[in-house]
TrEMBL record:
Residues 99-232 form the Galactosyltransferase N-terminal domain. Coiled coil: none annotated. Its cofactor is Mn(2+). It catalyses: N-acetyl-D-glucosamine + UDP-alpha-D-galactose = beta-D-galactosyl-(1->4)-N-acetyl-D-glucosamine + UDP + H(+). Belongs to the glycosyltransferase 7 family. GO terms for cellular component: Golgi cisterna membrane; Golgi membrane. Pfam families: Glyco_transf_7C, Glyco_transf_7N. The chain crosses the membrane at residues 12-32. One of its GO terms (molecular function) is metal ion binding. It is found in: Golgi apparatus membrane. This is Beta-1,4-galactosyltransferase. Residues 68-80 have a biased composition (Polar residues). The keyword Transit peptide does not apply. It comes from Rhinopithecus bieti (Black snub-nosed monkey).
Amino acid sequence: MSRLLGGTLERVCKAVLLLCLLHFLVAVILYFDVYAQHLAFFSRFSARGPARALHPAASSSSSSSSSNCSRPNATASSSGLPEVPSARPGPTAPMLPPCPDSPPGLVGRLLIEFTSPMPLERVQRENPGVLMGGRYTPPDCTPAQTVAVIIPFRHREHHLRYWLHYLHPILRRQRLRYGVYVINQHGEDTFNRAKLLNVGFLEALKEDAAYDCFIFSDVDLVPMDDRNLYRCGDQPRHFAIAMDKFGFRLPYAGYFGGVSGLSKAQFLRINGFPNEYWGWGGEDDDIFNRISLTGMKISRPDIRIGRYRMIKHDRDKHNEPNPQRFTKIQNTKLTMKRDGIGSVRYQVLEVSRQPLFTNITVDIGRPPSWPPRG
């Protein structure tokens, strides 16, 4: 009896031992299987690179101009990559695709009229996405350029309301990242359009060094087609090539007036615009000469797209035709190096950020009693 009981106990012990061994083997197999899965996961993670996973815009050369892709005040670690904040890191903004070259929401030919009343409150309601100071950034894509629209100005509030009414929707449909700057000449001395444009270039860059395209527009000109894209290209751009006051034709081959655009590099290459054209006329021809003398050519849209309507008005007081403009135009080659963005002198009196534009009032001096020749 005792022998039978001992044999049974021995078999039970062997069975328990085998069961424990089997349990151990299963545990070992499961351990190595889970380890292999974790190793594969971390291998894929490290292959993508930690900086790209945490900061999608860190590898982009244009991250400094895309405020929604990276933190503007992020500090750099010893590896050259932005450090991740240890406390409350916050969500990473998604990378937006580039804005299309041909924006899909363009309308084409527009009906432009200046008879309906145009209060600023209405224009503001029509453009809820435009920020204080007249700044706008598309919410669904990243533009290739940052555009400053510069308007020389004095006593044209009525015209400005129409300009804002039409241009803000056009520029938004064109998927531009832009700001609007009204450069208001203080006082009642002779008007100087080109000098005000130089001031606008400098003051816009003071506010945002990312501006790399500058559109210079008279306040009384509205495009009749939103396919006339307010962008800068490889050559200086003339937009207003077919105004209604000229019968929708280019008045002459060298005409560069009304609305034009230059990149920052192109503007600096010609030393900006001349400062010595006091009164009406001549400065746009001088600018055309500067572009030609530096080896660049004028780019223009199709004449069916570059059509503009002008708000009819009497000639401004203290903006009489400049009697010396023809002499000055003939001497652009001699004057362009000494007269331009490098020699402009002015005083900023007030900077006022309005809901639809930034108004900069400046004192640009007065014309000399005896203007220098050439």
